[in-house]
Amino acid sequence: MFSNTIKKKSRKISRIALFVMPGCLALSTTLISCTSTSDNTNTATDTKADPAATKTITFKTKLLRMGYQSSGDLVRVTGVLEKRLEPLGVKVEWAQFAQGPQLMEAMNVGKIDVGSVGETPPIFAQAAGARIVYLAGRRITATSGKRSAIAVPKGSSIKTLADIKGQKVVFQKGSASHYFIIKALEEVGLKYSDIKVLSMPNIEARGAFIQGTIPVWVTGDPHLALVEKLHGARVLRDATNIGTPGGYYVGTREFASDNPELLRIILEEIDKNGQWAEANRKEVAKLIAPVLKIDLPIQEIISGRANYRLKGITPELMKAQQSVADLFYQEKILPKKIDVKEALLTPKEYAAITPPTLISEK
């Protein structure tokens, strides 16, 4: 939160803004006014994507701390949040983490406000007592499941998924891969106890896998695409039809409660960026490839099967998320049963933070 030493005054700034949307460029003059009130609540006039439409919003922060994973983040690369929020007096800071569990740990200790993870990390964070809330889900596409896989090195004697019984299987515990491997094992009549689990972040495991010291690796893009295309890794099973509720944007309860109108703008920009991305995947690859230092043809594969758009939090989605949490408890991986409803906002709060483009998604 921040306060302004100049009270009962407002600053009006006339600016020429360049609005960039898929297929068009438009110049327009925007009028922005910011006011700081005595209760540390800030107000600003937001022109949204349409400079003719203005709305006064209130929020209690001048800093948004976003967490992202080492696999990259298109929202960070495009800078859409900075472009939308800095005129409102809100600075954006980004912090990188190896995977979802590390991101959730940072959120639990108050280092970040908002971040994107798979379906599993919020469950383990909630079990650890983190005061987190689900903000929005990620839409699942027909190609989403191809982004994750159970892989073996080129030349491995392991031919089928059933052959991994008794084998060392590497993945990051508490990540989406954790849920994936349990569900995949069920399909071939194996139990979680039938494999030897070694927890290791993807960024560390990739080198060991390439060297042949990891017999089975549960991973996802960009690591999956890299070992497939450059090192001949074989996929035993990808995550297609695995039945996941998908990933989420999550945040701290305090940030969500204090800044609902700001969160609505954040989610709106993320989804709008995602809509552009899914219509311009080759352009996305050109943006991401140099950031991740990946050859463009491989990044085109990664971007081609990624999902970028959001969906609103619904009872149906949370029912599916509860089934994931229940599975971890049944497998004795979670020490206690959790209720995902305890990590939800009220219907009124979701109405305040959820843009219309997310509400319509089932």
Notes on the protein architecture:
This protein has helices at residues 74-78, 80-85, 100-108, 121-127, 176-187, 202-211, 223-231, 253-258, 260-279, 281-292, 296-304, 315-330, 347-353, 356-359, and strands at residues 10-21, 24-36, 42-46, 55-59, 63-69, 91-97, 114-117, 132-138, 148-152, 168-171, 196-199, 216-220, 234-238, 248-252, 310-311. The protein has 362 residues and is an alpha/beta fold. It has a 6-stranded mixed β-sheet with strand order 6-5-7-14-8-15. It has a 5-stranded mixed β-sheet with strand order 11-10-12-9-13, with helices on both faces. Helix content is 36%, strand content 25%.
In short:
The chain is α/β, with parallel strands linked by helices and 362 residues long. It is 36% helix and 25% strand.
Strand order of the largest sheet: 6-5-7-14-8-15
By secondary-structure content and strand pairing, the structural class works out as: alpha/beta
Please provide the count of β strands. Answer: 15
On the 0 to 100 scale, the average pLDDT is 87
Shape: globular
Biggest beta sheet attributes: 6 strands, mixed
Helix content bin: 25-40%
Unreliable residue runs: 1-38
CA radius of gyration is 22 Å
Order of helices and strands: EEEEEHHEHEHEEEHEHEHEEHHHHEHHH
N-to-C span: 35 Å
Annotation field: number of helices? 14
Percent of residues in beta strands? 15-25%
